[in-house]
Specification:
Radius of gyration: 30 Å
InterPro entries: Apaf_helical (IPR042197), Disease_R_plants (IPR044974), LRR_dom_sf (IPR032675), LRR_R13L4/SHOC2-like (IPR055414), NB-ARC (IPR002182), P-loop_NTPase (IPR027417), RX-like_CC (IPR038005), Rx_N (IPR041118)
Organism: Prunus mume
Number of strands: 29
Keywords: Nucleotide-binding, Plant defense, Repeat
Protein name: Disease resistance protein At1g50180
Pfam family, one: Rx_N
């Protein structure tokens, strides 16, 4: 990891001093010398990083090297930003100018001495490494470590093998047995438990059951909740109730407004009256179950709870209707089958002799996996990137060392920890910090890729030197590549995928996260505080041994009386400060709540999201946090942004999305010329216009308002790719706006357009603006627009379309269905104009559509689907279309349809599609049918 830190710091210092060269004339020689020392140090760090796990002295030296590199970056950037700020402010008189020059002279002398001291530290550390026989290893500095073309081909092959995760081995008999116990009517079980050690495949087995056809047909409603060690009872109950009742916006709010007793009673009644399957994944203690079970029926019902746990006490619940299932580890043949599928997918292309040798080596290594699926999968992630038999032999030679390092951990890790450590150590230097950064996310959480990539970039973990030759990739593109590589190596699991096939959400397995946190602690990379009552002195002492803490994640609970400990000596070194649990936390005092955050002088990332229980104020001192690259107060109760925000000239991401309050925004965003992603509140005011034309690096602009922004500014945002715009009134100079913004609008890839005025003139103007966005992939239109552009071939890239209260004319469906590459169509809340009663999908229409979502279409009384329409449709979701009394007969022609969800429709329609109903023939060919409860509104 020291190799990664030094490499990134070297590039950061080099780029910063080049960009701000005019401010470093007095210390240029010292900067050049220290850069040379770091470059000389790089050659020794690969060997030092590998040896620190075996030798405590080397480990301490490596920690000191990391700290020296970080300190250098902090010193140089702090000085450069201060001088830059002084130059911009200028002086009003000669005496003041002389004072400013004198002060800058003192700063130059001081910064020079600090850099010289750091240079001496690095030089001495390098000498110590050489004396300790640390070898100088040369590598390609592009991070590939001399990757050969064969290795590159292997990596590309791995990419294809992980596109779809379908390699489930050894679970068939488990699924068959559990399905029988779930769907039987006599002597049925109220609770079914899957019990086993971590990594045994409990969650995978539960997912197989959750999507099983017989299970889907047997139960009417479903809910899945992960119950981590740090769970909130109410949150679990809310999630279950919302999923079981398929609650929409207003019912969701009603549930959130209930007291704990009310929500428990409601959930009890729903599970008593309906046939529900509730899956509670990963329950850790019997106490957890005792807290949750109050809301579950304790009488005979048709509902079932399926839980997974590592704790036998939880599985052996004192209930005569409980059934316990313990999956067994994979046997020798199953283990090899799984390893072969993931590590040698192209067996036919491999020489028989090579394959035989690899199988022999693989079988030897598999003995140490003890049949644990997770261990086998991670081992396969390592081996899949090794092309030759010799490389497999080297992995085999290191196996015993990793097993030895696993001894002393909890029993469940003895069969897997060595594999996880091997997988981490096998990462190239540039991926290690990216992986360790994942440790700050709470257990069992799915994290958004869009946020993660921004955090990586803000932290300086992504380098343009990783850009593929000849490409024009952005830092965010490179970050996505890094994430994809972590997925390939089986260290990250794909959660939610987007409409264009991109990864939207990810998670890491519990065992992988445990290993991640262990490594992060060893590297002084990250610290997690579960409570502010922890012993700060002991943590400080530990940090002194391992190095300064640079990243801090704080999980707040009811015990916490403040966000951070004030005046903590470690605050001055922290680069990332991320809070979790703010949604449930109510501070004892509102006054000065965020003020202690100003002690974090070199902070790059500040995430204070969801603090909506009390109104908080962003202190004006936040303008002193000039190193900030990422600032998010998303969902927090903040009414005013201070003018000092304009001092944050390094800011790359500003997220101040507040949905329920009107925020006052000063006209200072124009000073943040490094901004790449700007998310404005849903409702805000400003004195005059917010000037945005200076933000040439901007890629995302959410919340552009025609009331407070000059739309012509968009023309200068040449890197803009995502835009959310609201039109509150008719524009007086639309022709001029379109002329100045045309080229930028044509480069937009994702557009959300919200027409809030409701007038015909603004609706016409909205259509003209949308017509200028010819390159869009995703389009959402909210509010009325006169009509759709009539030339669908002008939108060859459009893959996702959302229409909400749009007022679509009946004859315009013919325009939509000609869109050649549309794969996702969502029609919300009276998407058609008021008098439209019939919705027709014509023969040959929507040739590429894969997912159709239709909800809230109250006025539609007849829906026709002609034979030959939507030939590629895989998923169909129909909810709350109360005008329909029957489903289209044409659904029976949709032979590729795999999932059909119907909820909240008229009782008459629900009766007709039951297995013995007169319309069941229309949908009987669909493998996965989810039929929810009919609407209470008829």
């Amino acid at each position: 990891m020291a190799e990664a830190v030094v490499s990134f710091v070297l590039e950061s210092v080099r780029d910063f001093t080049i960009q701000e060269a005019k401010f470093f004339s007095g210390v240029s020689q010292q900067v050049e010398v220290v850069q040379t020392e770091l470059q000389l140090m790089q050659g020794f760090l690969k060997d030092a990083d590998a040896r620190q796990g075996q030798d405590e002295t080397v480990r301490i030296w490596v920690a000191k090297i990391r700290d020296a590199a970080y300190d250098l970056e902090d010193v140089i950037q702090t000085y450069g930003l201060k001088v830059d700020s002084k130059k911009k402010r200028g002086v009003k008189n000669v005496l003041r100018r002389f004072a400013c020059i004198f002060k800058e002279g003192v700063d130059v002398h001081r910064i020079g001495k600090e850099i010289e001291n750091i240079t001496t530290r690095i030089s001495e550390l390098r000498s110590n490494l050489q004396k300790y026989n640390i070898k100088e290893l040369t590598t390609d500095r592009d991070g590939s470590d001399g990757e050969s073309s064969l290795q590159l081909q292997e990596r590309l092959r791995i990419t294809r093998s992980h596109v779809v995760e379908c390699d489930v081995v050894g679970l068939e008999s488990n699924v068959e047995e559990l399905v029988m116990h779930l769907v039987k009517d006599e002597n049925r079980h109220r609770v079914v438990s899957i019990w086993g050690m971590g990594g045994l495949g409990k969650t995978t087995l539960a997912r197989q059951l959750y999507h099983d056809k017989k299970v889907r047909q047997h139960f009417h409603s479903f809910a899945w909740v992960c119950v981590s060690q740090r769970f909130q009872v109410r949150n679990v109950w809310e999630r279950i109730l919302i999923e079981l009742t398929s609650a929409t916006k207003e019912p969701k709010q009603e549930i959130k407004d209930m007291t704990d007793d009310e929500i428990a009673k409601k959930l009890f009644c729903v599970m008593e009256e309906m046939r529900c399957l509730v899956i509670l994944d990963d329950i850790w203690s019997i106490e957890t179950w005792n807290l949750l079970k109050v809301a579950f029926p304790n009488v005979e019902t048709e509902s079932t709870i399926l839980l997974t746990t590592r704790n036998q006490a939880v599985a052996s619940l004192p209930n005569r209707n409980a059934y316990i299932h313990q999956p067994q580890p994979l046997n020798e043949n199953e283990s090899w089958e799984l390893l072969e599928k993931k590590a040698i997918p192209a067996r036919a292309e491999i020489d028989l002799g090579i394959f035989t040798k690899k199988r022999e080596l693989g079988m030897k290594m598999l003995r140490h996996c003890a049949g644990l699926p997770l261990a086998i999968i991670v081992l396969a992630g390592v081996l899949a990137r090794k092309n030759t038999v010799r490389e497999w032999e080297r992995v085999h030679e290191n196996v015993h060392e990793y097993i030895r390092r696993g001894i002393g951990h909890e029993e469940e890790y003895e069969g897997a920890s060595w594999v996880l450590a091997l997988s981490y150590d096998d990462l190239p230097y540039y991926l290690k910090p990216c992986f360790l950064y994942l440790g700050h996310y709470p257990e069992d959480s799915e994290f958004l890729v869009s946020e993660l990539t921004k955090l990586w970039v803000a932290e300086g973990l992504i380098s343009l030197r990783q850009q593929r030759h000849g490409s024009r990739e952005t830092m965010e593109d490179i970050a996505h590549n890094c994430l994809s590589e972590l997925v390939e190596r089986c260290l990250v699991q794909v959660g939610t995928s987007g409409s264009t096939g991109t990864i939207k959400g990810c998670r890491i397995h519990d065992l992988v996260r445990d290993m991640c946190l262990l490594k992060a602690k060893e590297e002084s990379f990250l610290q997690i505080n579960n409570s502010l009552q922890e012993n700060n002195s002991s943590m400080a002492a530990e940090a002194a041994q391992l190095g300064k803490i640079r990243r801090l994640a704080i999980y707040l609970d009811e015990k916490a009386d403040r966000l951070v400990s004030s005046r903590d000596e470690t605050n001055g070194h922290v680069r990332s400060l991320l809070f979790f649990g703010l949604e449930e936390w109510i501070p004892k005092s509102e006054k000065g709540l965020l003020s202690p955050l100003m002690d974090f002088k070199v902070l790059r990332v500040l995430k204070v999201e969801g603090l909506y229980e009390v109104e908080v104020e962003l202190p004006s001192e936040i303008g002193n946090m000039v190193h900030l690259r990422f600032l998010s107060v998303n969902g927090s109760y903040i009414k005013t942004l201070p003018p000092s925000l304009g001092n944050l000239v390094c800011l790359q991401t500003l997220d101040c999305r507040v949905h329920n309050y009107i925020v006052v925004i000063p006209n200072v965003i124009k000073k943040m010329k490094q901004l790449r992603h700007l998310y404005l509140p849903l409702y805000y005011t400003a004195k005059g216009n917010l000037e945005l034309s200076t933000l040439g690096h901007l890629q995302t602009l959410s919340g552009l308002s025609s009331k407070y922004c000059d739309l012509k500014d968009v023309g200068r945002l040449t890197n803009l790719r995502k835009l959310k715009i609201s039109l509150s009134s008719s524009l007086q100079n639309l022709e001029e706006i379109l002329k100045s913004t045309g080229s930028t609008l044509n480069r937009i890839r994702s557009l959300i357009f919200w027409n809030t005025s409701g007038t015909n003139s603004s609706a016409e103007q909205a259509m003209q603006i949308v017509s200028s966005c010819r390159g869009i992939y995703k389009l959402a239109l909210l509010g009325s627009i006169v009509e759709l552009p009539k030339e669908p071939h002008n939108y060859p890239n459009l893959t996702k379309l959302v229409l909400w209260s749009f007022g679509l004319k009946e004859d315009q469906m013919g325009i939509l269905e000609k869109l050649p590459n549309l794969t996702i169509l969502k029609l919300f809340q009276e998407a058609f104009e008021e008098n439209t009663k019939i919705m027709v999908f014509s023969k040959g229409g929507f040739p590429s559509l894969e997912f159709l979502f239709v909800t809230g279409m109250l006025g539609i009384t007849e829906w026709r689907v002609e034979e030959g329409a939507m030939p590629c449709l895989c998923r169909l979701n129909i909810t709350y279309c109360l005008g329909l009394t029957t489903l289209p007969d044409g659904l029976r022609y949709l032979t590729n349809l795999r999932e059909l969800t119907i909820r909240g429709m008229r009782r008459e329609l629900h009766r007709r599609i039951e297995e013995d109903g007169e319309d069941f023939y229309k949908i009987q060919h669909v493998p996965s049918l989810v039929i929810g409860e009919p609407s209470l509104m008829q």
